[in-house]
Amino acid sequence: MDPKQVINFGAGPAKLPQAVLLQAQKELLNYSGTGISVLEMSHRSSDFTKIISKTESLLRELLNIPENYKVMFMQGGGSGQFSAVPLNLIGLKKDRCADYLVTGTWSAKAAKEAEKYGKVNIVHTKLDSYTKIPDPSSWTLNPSASYVYYCCNETVHGVEYNFIPETNGVVLVSDMSSNFLSRPVDVSKFGLIFAGAQKNVGCAGVTVVIVREDLLGYGLKECPIVLDYKVQAEMNSLYNTPSCFSIYIMGLVLEWIRSQGGSNAMEILNKQKSSMIYDIINASDGFFVSSVDEACRSRMNIPFRVGKNKGDDALEKEFLDGASKLGMISLKGHRSVGGIRASLYNAVTLEDTEALAAYMKEFLKEHQ
Ligand code: PLP
């Protein structure tokens, strides 16, 4: 199919800005006159040093990262960080325990992994379904916890925090894999932020870790060296061969975000796009159903069911088939949730979203 006729609403790996792909294509065989591809370049060469330094300084600029934070480019994906976070931080205090907010699949997985390395306390009553964020006034935070962990945007369930949890001085850790750079964030409120690149800032293979310097050096002795924040920070992410090409692609995406007006502009655009879809859901008289609390509906991932009584499999299949005929792909909901999921990351344009909105309205008219 002609790429111009396809709109990718995938949850990740996800759509990249067209300008980034064209630039990467242009430079694929001969990067900046070096005569070689970034794919072939030594990670210790001066050309790659420029690429990784530029990617880091763009991140620092776009997120206004304070000087006392280290930026690392790690491997192992978001899941690697589910292990790396406790391996490096659960030893911050002698009790070796950590508080977890579990509001969806990804924070649940992170909490389960952390249990291997220390005590995990889930700070709220267990949720029957991942459709809301429990009221902070009901959380029982442990002042002796080494850190408080949450997932800022639950990609599978479409639950997003629009506030930063208050932890009374305990180190705050956040998985921002699926809403990184989709809105401004005050990095100084966090001990650590991590984000896999393959949704909003690039392709799979690299995970950004932003960590406050004073938290380095508390790793458990069994922490694998490639996941050791202190080692990776001291070696500028070059303890071993990093994902060079993915770091290069991230640099191009960050340049593109800057050219669009940075995180403020991304936020305006993402609000506009997500409201367009939620407005249709809300006005559909129960034909399209979002079960997520309005207060925490994600701007990035919008899961919904089609058909009254919370979803009709046949109707949903028809919806997906019709969308696919129009070039709109990867709209199928996560297998654990079913239904439809529209992911509207930074690279999904207003026009892409308008096309989906028009299709939803048409489908509603035909079937209601
Ligand atoms: N965290 C979030 C919020 C995610 O959406 C995902 C994957 O989709 C992960 C973590 C796991 O990332 P990875 O597949 O890179 O390990």
Automatic annotation (TrEMBL):
<keyword id="KW-0808">Transferase</keyword>
<dbReference type="InterPro" id="IPR015422">
    <property type="entry name" value="PyrdxlP-dep_Trfase_small"/>
</dbReference>
<protein>
    <recommendedName>
        <fullName>Phosphoserine aminotransferase</fullName>
        <ecNumber>2.6.1.52</ecNumber>
    </recommendedName>
</protein>
<keyword id="KW-0028">Amino-acid biosynthesis</keyword>
<dbReference type="InterPro" id="IPR000192">
    <property type="entry name" value="Aminotrans_V_dom"/>
</dbReference>
<dbReference type="GO" id="GO:0004648">
    <property type="term" value="F:O-phospho-L-serine:2-oxoglutarate aminotransferase activity"/>
</dbReference>
<keyword id="KW-0718">Serine biosynthesis</keyword>
<keyword id="KW-0032">Aminotransferase</keyword>
<dbReference type="GO" id="GO:0006564">
    <property type="term" value="P:L-serine biosynthetic process"/>
</dbReference>
<feature type="domain" description="Aminotransferase class V">
    <location>
        <begin position="7"/>
        <end position="356"/>
    </location>
</feature>
<dbReference type="GO" id="GO:0005737">
    <property type="term" value="C:cytoplasm"/>
</dbReference>
<keyword id="KW-0663">Pyridoxal phosphate</keyword>
<dbReference type="GO" id="GO:0030170">
    <property type="term" value="F:pyridoxal phosphate binding"/>
</dbReference>
<dbReference type="InterPro" id="IPR022278">
    <property type="entry name" value="Pser_aminoTfrase"/>
</dbReference>
<comment type="similarity">
    <text>Belongs to the class-V pyridoxal-phosphate-dependent aminotransferase family. SerC subfamily.</text>
</comment>
<dbReference type="Pfam" id="PF00266">
    <property type="entry name" value="Aminotran_5"/>
</dbReference>
<comment type="pathway">
    <text>Amino-acid biosynthesis; L-serine biosynthesis; L-serine from 3-phospho-D-glycerate: step 2/3.</text>
</comment>
<dbReference type="InterPro" id="IPR015421">
    <property type="entry name" value="PyrdxlP-dep_Trfase_major"/>
</dbReference>
<dbReference type="InterPro" id="IPR015424">
    <property type="entry name" value="PyrdxlP-dep_Trfase"/>
</dbReference>
<dbReference type="InterPro" id="IPR020578">
    <property type="entry name" value="Aminotrans_V_PyrdxlP_BS"/>
</dbReference>
